[in-house]
Amino acid sequence: MLIEKKRIGFSFPIDEWINLALSNVLLLPLSPEISIKAAKLGNTFHGDPADRIITATAILNDCSLITKDERIQNSGLVSTIW
Predict the structure, then answer these.
(1) What global pTM score does this model have?
(2) What's the Cα-to-Cα distance from 15 to each of 19, 28, 44, 78, rounded to whole Å?
(3) What is the 3-state secondary structure (H, E, C) of the chain?
(4) How do residues 70-79 score in pLDDT, each as one tens digit?
(5) How many angstroms from the chain centroid is the CA of residue 58?
């Protein structure tokens, strides 16, 4: 979307950039357990479904989450870096 809106640009196709960027990254699948955890984060936690899924994934996989989102940082639910 950012490319289409001309906010960012790449010198080569986006699919090549994504493949290169993810070449050394372990992608974790979305599981029913993650979905359930995301739903159970409570009404006071972040309302954005993607942020809930990302946070639930970090919690269940015992990972720190790299984010600048203050609502996630201040939640105390997950260790954050940034």
Answers:
(1) 0.76
(2) 6, 19, 37, 31
(3) CCCCCCCCCCCCCHHHHHHHHCCCCCCCCCCHHHHHHHHCCCCCCCCCHHHHHHHHHHHHCCCCEECCCHHHHCCCCCCEEC
(4) 999 999 999 9
(5) 9
